[in-house]
Structures are given as structure tokens and as C-alpha cells.
Specification:
The protein is of the alpha/beta class and 249 residues long. It contains 11 helices and 7 strands. The longest helix is centred in the N-terminal third of the chain and has 16 residues, at 31-46. Bound molecules: ligand PTJ. Ligand PTJ binds at residues 30, 32-33, 36-37, 39-40, 43, 77-79, 83, 103-105, 160, 162, 179-182, 185, 198-199.
């Protein structure tokens, strides 16, 4: 990372790529995570590599929803752990959420490596290792969750999700916040709150919103969630990608 000059026009994107590579080397990120990163980069490039206004609205609604939750859980996969470990711990602390490792390509080694990595970044407790419950309706490893974690949660934040679990969680009646750079992907389209932004910008911004809303009354938080329009947020991200509206071309 030291080799990338900070004024390089693609600095952030190169640092991100580097973190994913390091994540693979450390046994945190899956090889498929490299492909997911490439896909994400392409969408981020088209979005102008910035948090567009509709994504900022989504991040504020996500913060309000997490603060309203009785039992919020942040789901962590190999890409999220490599990119924003400290930021996830900070968000969990700010909104009183649990962190739970949940992997598409689940192996005991990667589960352990990610839990250790989060703990090294200050997480007091990491769920996901017990895996003593299942999300009904999905047959792959991603179904395995902790009874006192995602299974019990009322609000779940899922970054870089695949569509299957997003739909299954919604069917269980959980409120889902999905972070994904692709507005056409099935998971943000299933989410109550789709956040079309890079996870490296989205997580710290949700935390910042949560801090500024910390002393807000419940009705104010409820109004923020009620005013959020998921369809519109998806549409605006797609517009930005298709037309570059709001960007200097
Ligand atoms: O660690 P595991 O085993 O749970 O595996 C995680 C991956 C990401 C490999 C797995 O969930 C997967 O294969 O996901 P997909 O189907 O490739 O979807 C990843 C989505 O995340 C795509 O729509 C990408 O555009 C998006 N994405 C990639 N990088 C980022 C991102 N969204 C937000 N921020 C990013 N940095």
C-alpha cells in the first residue's frame, strides 16, 4: 500500500484491491472474493467512486433502523472483514449490534481467521462459530447461523450478499440492510434498505449518521425510516450509472 502515491487518481481503488489481496493471503477472503471485488470496482467506477446523495439517504435510514432495532446483527463475510474490520467493530459498538461471521464458502479455517481478525480489531465477541440454527429455505452453507445471533435478530446488515440468503432472511421477517454496488443485483432489490455504495465508504458513513442520531427520539428515527424510498434509491443509482448524471463527464 505504501507504494501507491496518495495523489494517484485511482488511489482508493488500488488500496481496496490491495486489502482484498492481503485478505486472500491471510486466509480471510475467498478466491471468489477477488472476482466480487472486480465486479464491485466496475460499478464503483460508473458511480463516480463517491457516495451519491441517494446512498447517503440510505445510510442515514440504515443508521436509524439499526438504532431502532431490538437486536441488530452485522453479518460479516471474507470481503467485508478484509476491507473494513475496524469500521465494522466501531459501527457495532455505536448501535449496539452483534457481529456474526457468515460465509458463502464456509470453512472452519476461514471462520476462525475472520473471527480472530475482528477480535484483533477490537471486537469483544464474534458470533457465527456455533452455527446452531439454520435459515429455512436455503440449502448452502450460508444457511448456518447462531441461534442467539442472526437467527434471533430483527434487523440484519448484510454486505456483498448473494440473492438467496437475502430473500430467505426477508421471508423470516427480518428487516434487511444490504450494501452492494450493483443496483441490479437481487439482494439490494430484496432489501428494505438497499445501500448502493462501496462498503469502505458506507460503513463509516452509517456510523457517522448513527452518532448524530444517537439522542434522537424514537418517532424521529421512525420517520427517517418511513420516509426512505427503496425503489427510488435503486432507480437513482441506476440513473447515475446509465447517464453519469451529476458527474463531470
Ligand atoms: O466470504 P464469502 O465466502 O462469504 O464470499 C463472499 C463473496 C463476496 C465472494 C460472495 O458473497 C459472492 O460471490 O458474492 P457475489 O455474488 O460476487 O456478489 C458480490 C456483490 O458485491 C456484487 O454485486 C458486487 O458488485 C458487490 N461488491 C463487490 N465489492 C464491493 C461490493 N459492494 C460494495 N462494496 C464493495 N467493496
Amino acid at each position: 500500500t505504501e507504494d501507491i502515491p496518495s495523489d494517484h487518481p485511482r488511489h482508493d481503488s488500488l488500496v481496496t484491491r490491495h486489502r482484498i489481496e492481503a485478505g486472500v493471503d491471510a486466509g480471510i477472503t475467498s478466491r471468489q472474493g477477488l472476482i466480487a471485488e472486480g465486479r464491485g470496482e466496475a460499478f464503483d467506477y460508473l458511480l463516480g467512486e463517491e457516495t451519491i446523495p441517494s446512498a447517503d439517504d440510505a445510510e442515514r435510514a440504515a443508521a436509524a433502523q439499526l438504532l431502532l432495532a431490538e437486536h441488530p446483527v452485522l453479518s460479516v463475510n471474507g470481503n467485508a472483514a478484509a476491507l473494513v474490520p475496524e469500521e465494522l467493530v466501531e459501527l457495532a459498538e455505536t448501535v449496539g449490534a452483534d457481529l456474526e461471521v457468515n460465509l458463502f464458502n464456509r470453512t472452519p479455517e476461514r471462520m476462525e481467521a475472520i473471527a480472530d481478525h475482528l477480535q484483533a480489531h477490537g471486537a469483544p465477541d464474534v458470533k457465527g462459530l456455533d452455527a446452531d440454527e439454520r435459515i429455512p429455505g436455503i440449502d448452502h452453507e450460508r444457511a448456518r447461523v447462531d441461534a442467539d445471533g442472526i437467527y434471533d435478530a430483527d434487523v440484519v446488515l448484510v454486505p456483498l450478499e448473494d440473492g438467496d440468503r437475502a430473500e430467505a432472511l426477508a421471508e423470516m421477517g427480518k428487516v434487511e440492510i444490504v450494501i452492494d454496488l450493483n443496483p441490479l443485483s437481487r439482494s439490494p432489490r430484496t432489501a428494505a434498505i438497499p445501500v448502493i455504495d462501496n462498503i469502505i465508504r458506507a460503513i463509516p458513513n452509517i456510523t457517522a449518521h448513527a452518532r448524530s442520531l444517537e439522542s434522537a427520539e424514537r418517532d424521529e428515527l421512525e420517520a427517517i425510516v418511513a420516509d426512505f424510498d427503496a425503489e427510488r434509491a435503486l432507480h437513482e443509482a441506476e440513473e447515475r450509472i446509465r447517464t453519469g448524471a451529476g458527474q463531470e463527464q
